[in-house]
Write a structure and sequence with these properties.
Rossmann fold; formyl-coa transferase, domain 3; about 350 residues; alpha/beta; 13 helices; 2 domains
Length: about 350
């Protein structure tokens, strides 16, 4: 008999009931690893939360539409919950399970509740959006230009990072169950994830230095930011004295490396405006591609700022086939779907 290959989570059944983006993204990651993910959809369709991009969130999953007013549908959901190895909830944004988090009794089951504030918080039942959590977690305060208003981060970065943390916790819980024979209840707070994203700002704050918004600049290093070339913008990231010296040589301005205003990282951060003016003047006479080639040849981290309409043509993403087109079976339309970010031969096991 030939060996058979299967994905790591082939024997895991996941019931996905929460409506948050984090729940959908977590379910997708588990699906990429081979789990059978059954997403429960409400009869009355919604465009909020993960349903804002149903095609991407449902790719690779099974779907079941339930009418919670129908006793038979409620019984069907109860059967799914009873059989699932993993249950994904977001109880703060509508709980069709009637309190499954508190009622679940299966000692082997892994129940994950992804909420804005976590259990036990005074705001436990409040369905706060990504943007509100960004505000409460100081992410908004640290985003935007120094001389402008605080800014919300556009993509749902907190929901997505919480999804990754939840998936990692589930993998750990599955290992614990296999080795020791018991399940877990995993309480994921998106606000916790927001605070964990403030590492760079905490380094300044706890060091006694005022930390606030810095736009595209790095709170610790300079020059670090976006610069305008003839045909677009590029990002230059210089951290060390050596990188800055190489940047100066690349611009044919080697004396800048010994300029008293720029001779150390703290001084460069203090005089960032003068430094940015010099780099912008250099970049303005060149294309983005010319700037990138010059900087990369000098060993200075640099890259073009890709616009949304360019994503499908970005060479690295094309090579990786990161953005794929698929037919949405519900609408019969072509949909752009992100490929799995999890890749590697170790994901397959031989049986």
């Amino acid at each position: 008999m030939h060996d058979q290959q299967r994905l790591l989570l082939d024997d895991v059944l996941v019931a996905e009931l929460g409506n948050r983006i984090a729940v959908g993204a977590c379910g997708s990651l588990l699906s990429h690893l081979g789990a059978r993910v059954v997403a429960v959809e409400p009869r009355d369709r919604s465009t909020s939360g993960k349903w804002g991009n149903r095609a991407a969130m449902m790719a690779g999953k099974s779907s079941i539409v339930l009418d919670y007013a129908d006793e038979r549908d409620r019984a069907l959901q109860g059967e799914l919950l009873a059989r699932a190895d993993v249950v994904l909830l977001s109880s703060d944004c509508g709980d069709p399970t009637n309190g499954f988090w508190g009622a679940a009794a299966d000692a082997l089951q892994i129940v994950v509740d992804i909420t804005a504030f976590g259990h036990g918080d005074t705001n436990e039942a409040r369905c706060a959006s990504e943007e509100i959590v960004q505000a409460l977690g100081a992410v908004v305060d640290t985003t935007g230009p120094a001389d402008g208003a605080p800014a919300v981060v556009g993509p749902p970065v907190l929901e997505m990072t919480t999804a990754v943390s939840a998936a990692a916790a589930i993998l750990l819980a599955l290992r614990v169950r296999r080795l020791h024979g018991f399940g877990q209840r995993i309480d994921m707070s998106i606000l916790d994830g927001a605070v964990s994203c403030l590492t760079n700002f905490f380094a300044l704050h706890f060091g006694g230095v005022q930390a606030s918004r810095s736009g595209n600049r790095h709170p610790l290093y300079s020059p670090w930011g976006s610069y305008r070339a003839r045909d677009g913008h590029l990002l230059v990231c210089s951290v060390s004295d050596d990188q800055f010296a190489r940047l100066c040589h690349a611009m044919d301005e080697p004396a800048l490396a010994n300029d008293p205003r720029f001779s150390s990282a703290p001084l460069r951060r203090q005089h960032f405006a003068e430094l940015d003016e010099i780099i912008n003047a250099w970049a303005a006479n060149r294309t983005v591609a010319e700037c990138e080639q010059t900087m990369m040849h000098a060993g200075v981290p640099c890259g073009p700022i890709v616009t949304l309409d360019m994503v499908e043509r970005e060479p690295n993403l094309v090579h990786r086939e990161t953005v794929r087109r698929s037919i949405d079976p519900e609408t019969a339309r072509s949909a752009r779907v992100p490929a799995s970010p999890i890749r590697g031969t170790a994901l397959l096991v031989v049986t």
